[in-house]
UniProtKB/TrEMBL annotation:
Originating organism: Sphingobium lactosutens DS20
GO biological process, one term: DNA recombination
Annotated family: Belongs to the 'phage' integrase family.
Name of the protein this chain belongs to: Tyr recombinase domain-containing protein
Entry-linked InterPro entries: DNA_brk_join_enz, Integrase-like_cat_sf, Integrase_catalytic, Tyrosine_recombinase_XerCD
Name of one Pfam family that matches: Phage_integrase
Length: 313
């Protein structure tokens, strides 16, 4: 099949997965016209660089976005024809490239929560708060700022619904929680109030009753990560380098999406729900995980290829 015909199939398959490809289609059709004029039968890094050099001057972000579009198309093509070579991710410089997320295993998340519960403090509040705080982010995918801003009243115990009132860009949303999560939060607030000797407005607090701060949360997470071997001790940088609290949110999103593919669910339909749950402004921000996590990309490409072959029958 010609590259143009392959592109038609590729766009049809990805649209069936829920992607908005208006920009990608324009870029890829320009690229295919260039490839046809050059007599190219297969895509590789050299072809992309020659095409990129022929385009009007553009910033690094625009050029990198073009690379991403061509790269995904080439990856799809290479799944059925190994003569195609996807241009490498770092072929062009881009200051806006997002860091690849660290995806925790279930064992690592369990170790984080267990080690956090052992964090030392005068009354035991630090371990109680941090273990619950990290656990809630792991099972809901909340942003750190959203979890820190929660008040006790934001949890409706009767319905099991958590109100996230301080989402990104001021957006609010409601999250129905699993009963086991609600029970854990009830246990936490009961013990928290006992240690404080009073009820608390903020959900997550320090030993003195003040709301847990972002600095304190990150410092505690760094300490826990070093204790279980996820980070190396850093002499000059107190927190060191390694997986972050925010990667718990990434892990929640990725594991959710992997389950869709393994259970045969329709990613296009489920993606809208996950985008709403995570509080993303656009589904494109959620689709990013497919490109950022190799396992997800493989599952998505396998499904897209299967749908493509079935459409040809």
């Amino acid at each position: 099949m010609s590259l143009a015909s392959q592109l038609d199939r590729y766009l049809a398959v990805r649209r069936s997965l829920g992607y908005d490809l208006r920009t990608s289609e324009r870029v890829l059709r320009r690229f295919i016209r260039f490839a046809d004029d050059a007599g190219a039968q297969h895509i590789d890094a050299d072809l992309f660089l020659r095409w990129d050099a022929s385009q009007p001057a553009a910033g690094s972000s625009t050029r990198s976005a073009r690379l991403g579009m061509v790269r995904l198309f080439a990856l799809w093509l290479s799944s059925v024809d190994l003569a195609h070579e996807a241009p490498p991710r770092g072929l062009l410089p881009d200051r806006t490239i997002r860091k690849r997320p660290y995806i925790y295993s279930k064992v690592e998340i369990g170790d984080i929560i267990a080690a956090a519960s052992e964090l030392p403090s005068t009354y035991g509040m630090r371990g109680l708060t941090c273990s619950t705080f990290f656990g809630l982010i792991a099972v809901t995918g909340l942003r750190i700022s959203e979890a820190l801003a929660l008040d006790t009243s934001d949890l409706d115990v009767a319905t099991g619904v958590l109100s996230v009132r301080h989402g990104k860009l001021g957006k609010e949303r409601l999250l129905p929680l699993d009963p086991t999560v609600v029970d854990r939060l009830i246990t936490y607030t009961t013990e928290r109030n006992r240690l404080l000797g009073r009820a608390s407005t903020p959900l997550f607090v320090r030993c003195n009753g003040d709301r847990l701060s972002e600095w304190s949360a990150r410092a505690s997470f760094a300490r826990v990560s070093r204790a279980i071997g996820l980070r190396e001790y850093s002499r000059f940088k107190r927190h060191g380098k390694g997986p972050r609290i925010h990667d718990l949110r990434h892990t929640f999103a990725v594991r959710t999406m992997i389950d869709w593919y393994r259970m045969g669910k329709d990613p296009a339909r489920e993606m809208i729900r996950l985008t709403t749950w995570l509080g993303h402004a656009s589904p494109d921000h959620t689709f990013w995980y497919i490109e950022a996590v190799p396992e997800l990309l493989e599952l998505a490409m396998a499904r897209a290829t299967r749908i493509g072959w079935e459409a040809q029958r």
